[in-house]
Amino acid sequence: MLELDKVNTYYGEYHAVRDVSLKIDAGGFFMIVGPNGHGKSTLLKTICGLLPTASGRVLFQGEDITRWSTDRIVDAGLVYVAEARHLFNDMTVLQNLQLGAFNAGARKKMHGNLAYVYQLFPRLKDMSNRVVATLSGGEARMLTIGRGIMSRAKLLAIDEPSFGLAPNVRNEVFQKIESIRQDGTTILLVEQNVNQVLDFADRICLIEDGKIVFQGDKQAALLDEHVNQVFLGE
Amino acid sequence: MQLRKELVTFIGVFVLLALLPLFIHQNTYMVGLLITCLIWGTMAAVWNFTMGYAGIFTFGQFGFFAVGAYISGMLAKHLGVSAWISMPAGGCGACLVGLLIGIPCMRLKGSYIALITWALHLVLGPMIKVAEPLGTGGSTGLMSIPSIQIGGFVFSRTGLLPWYYTGLMISFLILLVVYRIIFSPVGLGFVGLRDSEDFARTLGINEYKYKLLVFGISAFLTGLIGAFYVHYAGAISPRILGLDIFLLVMLMLIVGGIGVFPGAFIGGFIILILNEILRPLGPYRFLIFGAVVIVAIKAMPEGLLGRLNRLLETKRTDSKASSQALP
Amino acid sequence: MNIWVQQIIQVLISGIVTASVYAIMGIGLSIIYGISRVFNFAYGSFFTWGAYLAWVLFNTFSWMTYPIVFLIVLPVMFALGMLTERVVVRSLRWRANWQVTTMMVTLGLAFLLDNLALIVFGGFAKPLPPMFRGGLNPFGFTLSIQDLLMVLIAAAVMIVFGLFLSRSFVGMSMQAISQDMTGAEIVGIPIKKVFSYTFGLSTALVGMGGILLAPRYYISPHGGWEPFFRVFVIVAFGGLGSIKGTLYAALILAIFEAFISWSLGATWVLPFWFMVFLGVLAFRPSGLMGTWG
What we know:
The complex is a heterotrimer of chains A (about 230), B (about 325) and C (about 290). Chain A has 11 helices and 10 strands. With about 230 residues, chain A is α/β, with parallel strands linked by helices. Chain A has a single domain, classed as Rossmann fold (3-Layer(aba) Sandwich). Chain B has helices spanning about 5-20, 20-25, 30-55, 60-80, 85-105, 110-130, 160-180, 185-195, 195-205, 205-235, 245-255, 265-280, 285-300, 305-315, and strands spanning about 150, 155. In chain B, helix 7 (about 160-180) packs antiparallel against helix 10 (about 205-235). Chain B is globular and about 50 Å long.
């Protein structure tokens, strides 16, 4: 469904993503792990059009989306869920969700999408008229994910959803993500807290210094020495 | 001092300017035009220094120019102060205004400084008019401002060479100061760090102090050249703050390239000579200039001279090894 | 009624009338800065051109009326604004110092427009015919119907705009961009298109202001700078990016201006605006209700 071919990204002069090639199949749960600041988030942002690709290609459902603007990518069904909230703080929860379904296709199914999100995150329904600035970390994170699926994305690229959350809340978040996956959305997840989410993943990729150091099935990952070192290091 | 290409260009231009009158001193019109170019070119150069090197987005330079001019003019006219004292006094006055504005401003974000200084420019005119009782001459302006004197020799209004060489000297000194600051270890370090936001944040208070210092110096230098102007022209009015001149000097910056030394100074000559050539066109002249501003900014972000600069640079570094290990 | 009170109320009315038009123009400037973070120095020139276009229509067609003028000129201004954004401003955004270069390039545009007006229309100030002759005399005050209309039109515009911002998807996307640009991108809002619409909207608003004020103040090529300055101070006072702030500021400052003009005379008006501006900068740079500091 999603394929990267030798993608390179620069942050100014800094070469953040180097020659990354990977493949994600539809319906899968693909996890990217690795130390902080080594390019995981940058990679995600590049895929979703928020950062320009210096070279290489990004293919989504067979189409070359490398040069596409973010709104076109969202239209095609690839949605980014940021680690830094990037929510509309002066608006209500409901308004944020409504904006999540901005693109024309999703707008028509607004009602249905909203119902789906509320079913997945019942607390959001209770808070629908609350101003976002007043939300707690966990609530905001739910909203970020909820907003991301309002457009009925085909692939959801989620950036460190558990960051800054209490362990029990983290678990809840991961469970929700897995439910979303089971409902048919492909998941691409960047995470540092590997342990809690390892069960759900089926393919894992380790990035160090902007390069892919390992890519393969979860089984293979668990057997790989280097990968284990990184996992144990948490 | 290191033999940089900027230094070579700088000295070269001034040597050329010093020798030029030998060929054209008969032509008073041309000498006069050159003096005007000197004045505004210098003004543009200091503005370029403030914006391009120190990264302070200011539209207030004309304010400093006017303050320097008015102070020097008023001191000379009302109090009979010698120009050699009133000119630096004008610079100091402008510097004071600069610090007054700069102290609250330099902490703010770039675009805010631009807006604030631009507003300063806009309101200085009415302020001058309102301060008429203080001797500013109101909307008609100050006239019959005394000439410069050396000993007993008074600079006349017809023999322009003394003006030319005095102006050249003042201009040279001003640009020398600018050059020394830009290429000082502190200056170079500042530029290098300025462009990367993360490092700039760690500079913190030092950045503020440095910017304030640069702002004050640029105000002084601009006030100084403004003071020279007022003695040369013999008169000044709030029209000096008109947008027409603003646009012309801005064009000098753009043509010369923001951040290129001594681009804006050379730009001064280019633009003012162009202005003379286009003068018979009347209002079309500014129409064209307006269009030139738009086209120049979009097509040549580094300015004509910036482009040249870059071409020279790439020729030189072509021979260097192309692979630099990336982090 | 006491003659003093009568005069004061008269001045108040005059202040409110000007405030209403400044408010519309203030909204235009506020959204440009709030959403696209650029400053359009050609704002005053568009003000003038809106009025000039209206003048052309009135001069060419004897049957011309204001509603038709608005119907024709406002979309033209909107298109002009979008064109300006697309051609002049857009490509600068991804470059170094884009905020300053945008100011410079719009300044160049202002010159182009002003001098174009000078060439096309000449330097003599031109009037627009009054919208409505005659006046009312409620409680013994003079209130021209024209003035009343201005307030009503302005109020209508503001209400419609407010609804547009909070109810329509385009309006909400504008708010979204102003609150979190990256968030807006993530959600799939076409940022560039919205910038375009914003510029167009802002130009239309200032053009409307130009038309509304022209019958009273006459149109001249460089006549846009003073209103621009006033609107600028209003927006700075009310807080860059806050619509409500702009409204309050317009009301407060215009009323103050009316009083100053009445009590101290017209020469004190500009210095008044200046002092307000200095005050804002010194004590509260983010303005009354500003969201950007």
